[in-house]
Design a protein that fits this description.
Helices cover 70% and strands 2% of the residues. It has 510 residues and is mainly α. A two-stranded antiparallel sheet has the order 1-2. Strand 1 and strand 2 form a beta hairpin. Helix 9 runs antiparallel to helix 10. The longest helix is centred in the last third of the chain and has 18 residues.
Length: 510
C-alpha cells in the first residue's frame, strides 16, 4: 500500500503545476490501489489536479465517485467549471450543493461563481445579481475577495455604476480592488475618473497599504492614450521610474501608445529603445503610433524592421501599416502588405483590414474592384467597410454605387447622424442635389438635431474642447489664421490624386 504522505506529495506537485496532465492519469490508479479513495483531502487534491490540468470530465468523475463531500471539494469543482467558462455547469452544481448537502457556500464558493471566464452577457449579469443577493444575505459582502469578485463581475458586464457602488461600500481594499475599478473606468471610456481614483489610491484615504503596480500603470496609461492626456502620461512615466517598474513590458507598451497618441513620437521611440526584448505588442504599438500621426514611411520602416528581426506579425501589426498606407495614399505599398498578410502569413482579414483595402482601391480609382471586395468577402453588414466604400464613391463621383452604399448604410444604422452626413457629402460632390435634400429631410426625422462634433487639445494640463467655427475660445482668430496657413502648406506639398502604377498588385489578389 502506498503511504498517504507519498500520495499527498505527488498531488501537491500536480496542483502546483510541477507536472503535466499525463501525470494525473498515472497518479489516479495509485490512488485507487492504495485504498485512500474515501480520503476527502486526497480526493479533493486529485480533483483539483485534474481541474488545473484542463481535464474537466476527469475532475467531475472523481467528484462523483467521492461519497462524502465537504465544502472544499464542492468549491474545487465549481471553480473548475468557472475557470473553463462553463458558467451554467458551475451554477447547476452550486444549486445541487445547496439542495443535496445543505451547504450555503463560503467566500471561495462565490468568488469562483463570480470569476467565471465566460464572455459577458445578459445571462452572466443576471446570475451575478443573484450571487450578489446571496452574498448580502449571508453577510459575505465584507469579505475582501468576494467584494472584489463582485466588483470585477459588474465591470466585465459594463455596469460601471454598480461596480462603483460595490467599490465605495468596501471597508477594506487592496491593490487588486483598486485595479479592478481603474480598469473598469478605463475600458468604458472613463479615463478621467480612472485618473481621479488613482489620485485617491496614492493619498491612501482608507488607511490600507495599497501601492500601485504594473497593471495599475498600464491601465492608466491606456486611458491617457484614449483621452489625449499627455501631461498625466508624463507624470505616470515619472512615477514608474521612481518605483522602478518602468521595465515591465506591459508598462512600456502602454507608454508607447500613450506617447504616440498624444503626438510625442520622440518619447515613444525612446521608450521603445529601452525594451530589451520587444514583443509583437511593442512593435505594433510603434507602427500604430507612426500611422496615427500620419508618418507612413516611418511606420513602414518599423514594420520592416520587425520582419527583419524575425518577429511574426499579427493582424494588429498589419492593421497599423495598412492604415498608414491608406491615410498617406501609398497604394502600391498598401496592396503589397495586404497580399503579404493574406497569402504569406495566412491571416484572415477582419473588417478593419478590408476597410483599409477598400480605401486603397478607391484611391487607385478601382471602385469596381472595391465593390467586388464587399460582395466576395461577405462584409456588406459592416458599417466601417461600407463607409470606406462610400467615401471612395464620393472621391470618384460614382453616384450609382454611392446610392447602393447609402441604402446599405442606412439599413444598418438608421439613427446614426454621421452616416447621413457622409451620404450627404457624397451626393453633394456628385451634384445630386435632389438626393441630398431627401437625405437631409430623412436625417431630421430620424436623428433630430445633430450634436456637433468636437475636438480637444491639452493646454497647461487641462483638456480644452472646441467645435467647428468656435469663436468662444481665446485667440480663436489667431487659430483660424494658423489653420489657413496649414491648409495652404498642405495643398502645396501634397497631391490630391496618387495613381497606382502597378495594377497587377490588385488583380493578383482578386
Amino acid at each position: 500500500m502506498w503511504p498517504r504522505g507519498f500520495l499527498s506529495r505527488l498531488l501537491l506537485l500536480v496542483t502546483g503545476g510541477g507536472t503535466d496532465r499525463r501525470s494525473c492519469a498515472r497518479i489516479h490508479p495509485l490512488f485507487i490501489k492504495s485504498g485512500h479513495a474515501s480520503d476527502a483531502r486526497l480526493t479533493t487534491a486529485l480533483a483539483d489536479a485534474y481541474a488545473k490540468s484542463g481535464l474537466v470530465t476527469h475532475a467531475r468523475r472523481v467528484f462523483d465517485e467521492t461519497p462524502r463531500r465537504d465544502v472544499v471539494l464542492w468549491n474545487v469543482m465549481i471553480s473548475c467549471y468557472s475557470s473553463h467558462g462553463l458558467i451554467h455547469h458551475s451554477w447547476a452544481l452550486f444549486a445541487s450543493m445547496r439542495r443535496s448537502s445543505g451547504l450555503s457556500g463560503d467566500g471561495f464558493t462565490f468568488s469562483a461563481l463570480l470569476s467565471t471566464r465566460a464572455p459577458s452577457s445578459s445571462c452572466s449579469y443576471h446570475l451575478g445579481l443573484l450571487a450578489h443577493g446571496l452574498v448580502l444575505r449571508l453577510g459575505l459582502h465584507l469579505d475582501l475577495v468576494v467584494a472584489t469578485a463582485l466588483l470585477d463581475m459588474y465591470a466585465k458586464c459594463g455596469q460601471v455604476a454598480d461596480a462603483r457602488r460595490v467599490f465605495d461600500a468596501m471597508l477594506l481594499r487592496n491593490t487588486v480592488s483598486w485595479n479592478a475599478i481603474i480598469v473598469c473606468y478605463g475600458q468604458r471610456g472613463g479615463g478621467k475618473e480612472a485618473l481621479q481614483i488613482f489620485v485617491s489610491m496614492l493619498r491612501n484615504d482608507d488607511g490600507c497599504c495599497c501601492r500601485p503596480d504594473e497593471l495599475t500603470l498600464a491601465s492608466l496609461l491606456s486611458s491617457c492614450a484614449n483621452i489625449a492626456a499627455a501631461y498625466e502620461a508624463t507624470q505616470l512615466h515619472v512615477y514608474a521610474l521612481k518605483r522602478g517598474i518602468q521595465g515591465y513590458l506591459q508598462v512600456a507598451n502602454a507608454l508607447i501608445m500613450a506617447y504616440g497618441k498624444n503626438g510625442f513620437l520622440q518619447e515613444a521611440t525612446q521608450t521603445f529603445a529601452t525594451i530589451h526584448n520587444p514583443d509583437i505588442v511593442s512593435w505594433s504599438s510603434m507602427v500604430s503610433s507612426f500611422a496615427y500621426l500620419g508618418c507612413a514611411r516611418s511606420a513602414i520602416h518599423v514594420f520592416e524592421r520587425m520582419l527583419h528581426q524575425g518577429m511574426q506579425p499579427d493582424g494588429i501589426a498589419f492593421l497599423g501599416v495598412l492604415s498608414a498606407c491608406s491615410h498617406a495614399g501609398l497604394i502600391q505599398d498598401g496592396l503589397k502588405y495586404f497580399l503579404l498578410m493574406t497569402t504569406d502569413y495566412r491571416i484572415d482579414p477582419c473588417p478593419q483590414h478590408l476597410a483599409c483595402l477598400v480605401d486603397l482601391l478607391g484611391r487607385a480609382g478601382r471602385v469596381q474592384d472595391a465593390y467586388n471586395v464587399l460582395l466576395n468577402m461577405s462584409c456588406q453588414t459592416n458599417t466601417d467597410v461600407i463607409a470606406a466604400f462610400l467615401a471612395a464613391c464620393k472621391t470618384r463621383g460614382n453616384i450609382e454605387l454611392a446610392k447602393w452604399a447609402a441604402d446599405r448604410l442606412l439599413g444598418l444604422e438608421p439613427n446614426e447622424s454621421a452616416n447621413y452626413l457622409l451620404i450627404s457629402n457624397a451626393y453633394a460632390a456628385a451634384g445630386a442635389w435632389s438626393e441630398l435634400a431627401k437625405v437631409r429631410s430623412h436625417m431630421r426625422n430620424m436623428c433630430g438635431n445633430k450634436v456637433p462634433g468636437c475636438s480637444w487639445i491639452e493646454v497647461g494640463g487641462k483638456v480644452q474642447t472646441f467645435v467647428s467655427n468656435d469663436i468662444s475660445l481665446q485667440r480663436s482668430t489667431e487659430m483660424r489664421h494658423m489653420m489657413d496657413l496649414l491648409v495652404v502648406f498642405v495643398e502645396k506639398e501634397c497631391n490630391e490624386y496618387t495613381p497606382c502604377e502597378d495594377p497587377d498588385l490588385i488583380s493578383e489578389w482578386f
